[in-house]
Amino acid sequence: ETGVTQTPRHLVMGMTNKKSLKCEQHLGHNAMYWYKQSAKKPLELMFVYNFKEQTENNSVPSRFSPECPNSSHLFLHLHTLQPEDSALYLCASSHGTSAVRNTGELFFGEGSRLTVL
Amino acid sequence: SQQGEEDPQALSIQEGENATMNCSYKTSINNLQWYRQNSGRGLVHLILIRSNEREKHSGRLRVTLDTSKKSSSLLITASRAADTASYFCATDARDYKLSFGAGTTVTVRA
Q1: Each residue of A8-23: pLDDT tens digit?
Q2: Chain A residues with at least one Cβ partner in B under 8 Å
Q3: A33-48 core/surface letters (b: 16 or more CB in 10 A; e: else)
Q4: pLDDT digits (tens, 9 = 90+) for B19-33
Q5: Do B98 and A56 touch (CB under 8 A)?
Q6: How far apart are the C-alpha atoms of A77 and A99, rounded to whole Å?
Q7: For chain A, what percent of residues have pLDDT higher than 90?
Q8: A107 and B88 in contact by Cβ < 8 A?
Q9: Which of B8, B48, B86, B98 is most buried, judging by how many CB atoms fall within 10 Å of its CB?
Q10: A99: helix, strand or coil
Q11: Helix (H) or strand (E) holding A100
Q12: Considering only CB atoms, which chain A residues are within 8 Å of B33?
């Protein structure tokens, strides 16, 4: 139990569906992240939020839309996805984006396994 | 862009043996971290080594860092079946953003 909870754990959707992934952290952290993990590839940083403000959009296609209503919750809204978007989507949190340099640690959720048909 | 790169991609060892994996990176770093991921699960932080440190221990884990060679190694001693997982190095060369490699998959045979 890392203190970061992701739902759903598994999601199957068609290319025309709209769905959302949810992440909640109970650690009092101020920064939250979305990563994409595809088989045999390095983790790809997608979005970073620090104190609810988006500080990073790593050239992610607009069919992925993040939302961070407060420092404890992070959503990833999915719309008109492609089969190549099938992957494990990982949410993580840290004390704050500057803290990653000083203390280092990211706390990850268990991930949401997305399959796009 | 990818900063850390782990080697080997996969490693299979007998229970009780030591497992060593390496990480190479391209640019100067503030610190380097190692994470473990069990199949289908999230990543768990194992250890952090700062750029001014050369070696660090945590239980059965030993991490070294050679900034002149831009490389790090993770040694797991007296491996157990529960050590079967993928291991990732992560560096923070660019601001606060951690950059991960593709990982080393370790299988510990009983």
Answers
A1: 999 999 988 899 999 9
A2: 2, 4, 6, 31, 35, 40-43, 45, 48, 56, 88, 90, 92, 97-101, 103-111, 113
A3: bbbbbeeeebbbbbbb
A4: 999 999 988 888 899
A5: no
A6: 27
A7: 69
A8: no
A9: B98
A10: helix
A11: helix A97-102
A12: 104-105
